[in-house]
Amino acid sequence: GKNMSEIISGKIISAQINRELRQEVDQLKTKGIEPCLAVVLVGEDPASEVYVRNKKRTCEEIGIRSIGHNLPDTTTQEELETLVQNLNSDPVVHGILCQFPLPGDLDETQVIQTISPEKDVDGLHPMNAGLIAMGQPRFISCTPYGVLQMLKRSGISTSGKNAVVLGRSNLVGRPIATLLSSKGWDSTVTVCHSRTADLAEVTSKADILIAAIGIPEFVTKNMVKKGAVVIDVGINRIDDPSKTKGSRLVGDVAFEEVENKASFISPVPGGVGPMTIAMLMVNTVNASRWQNGLAEMNL
Fold first, then answer.
1. Which of 88, 110, 112, 87 is nearest to 98 (CA)?
2. Terminal CA-to-CA distance of the chain, rounded, Å?
3. Model confidence over 176-185: pLDDT tens digits?
4. Which of 122, 207, 232, 252 is catalytic?
């Protein structure tokens, strides 16, 4: 029948996590610990400025201190890395976030590797990626972590399920696949991508389908098994003359047609997006706990 899907709202779940964090941060402050995030923004990319503003606003709501470092786009690699090293050695700062993309020919990989793995709240350092691969995660990158929380808090069981991850990026697809196959999540995972043969056949065997391929409305209903759980990680802007902006946001899933076939589906916007910021906050609070000898939060 129509609308058999339950909507997994990242908006609602992230608000719930942020409320828990606010209590957590209040508790930490009574112990003399003030979680602190340093946010580094280079140049004047409008999208990046919006993201940074949202991150700082969420810090404020939760009671996390945020310190902004806004650098001109004339900043050299050496200047940027020196700033990061200063933040590494500043005991007040628990988490370091450098907003990407960087302007000009600044080297993002080099910057990621300069951030102390203990303060890498984005979970991008090779050491933290390696810990995930070993089944001993410290910082989980925010988008994969958000997807896991959406599944868990929607009461979706992953154990023994077939999970298909569409996309293999280091930022999203790869870590989600690794995490879902790890102890405690226990899914049987297939990673597919643009080169996969018979893609629709592979994806339509999924009990849980994670779309992170970066192509607007790529996943159509013939690619989805009836009753599957569909998480849409895509954020794509497409032209739409009927909108004031002349465009609108869509995911990697053709929402209207898949909605009638899935048991659970996450929308775009309002799905994975808000979760990503909430998990950055979780990572920052955990960083402040670990750096003060406390165990991680129990989510």
1. 112
2. 35
3. 999 999 999 9
4. 122
Q: What one-letter code names the amino acid at 147? A: V
In the set 55, 161, 225, 261, the catalytic residue is 55
Distance CA 4, CA 263 (A): 6
Q: Taking Cα atoms as reference points, which of 147, 186, 192, 205 lies closest to residue 165? A: 192
**Active-site residue among 99, 119, 252, 261?**
99
Please indicate whether residue 99 is annotated as part of the active site.
Answer: yes
- Buried b or exposed e, range 219-256, using 16+ CB within 10 angstroms: bebebbbeebbbbbbbbbeeeeeeeeeeeebbbbbbbe
pLDDT computed for residue 4 by the predictor:
73
Chain-wide mean pLDDT for the chain?
97
* 110 is an active site residue: no
122 classed as catalytic? yes
Q: Which residues contact 12 (CB under 8 A, 6 or more apart)?
A: none
Phi, psi torsion values for 180, nearest 5 degrees? -65, -25
Task: Map residue 280 onto helix, strand or coil.
Answer: helix
List strands edge to edge, sheet with 188-192: 6-7, 264-265, 229-232, 208-211, 162-166, 188-192
Q: State pLDDT tens for residues 35-51.
A: 999 999 999 999 999 99
Question: Could you tell me the pTM of the whole model?
Answer: 0.96
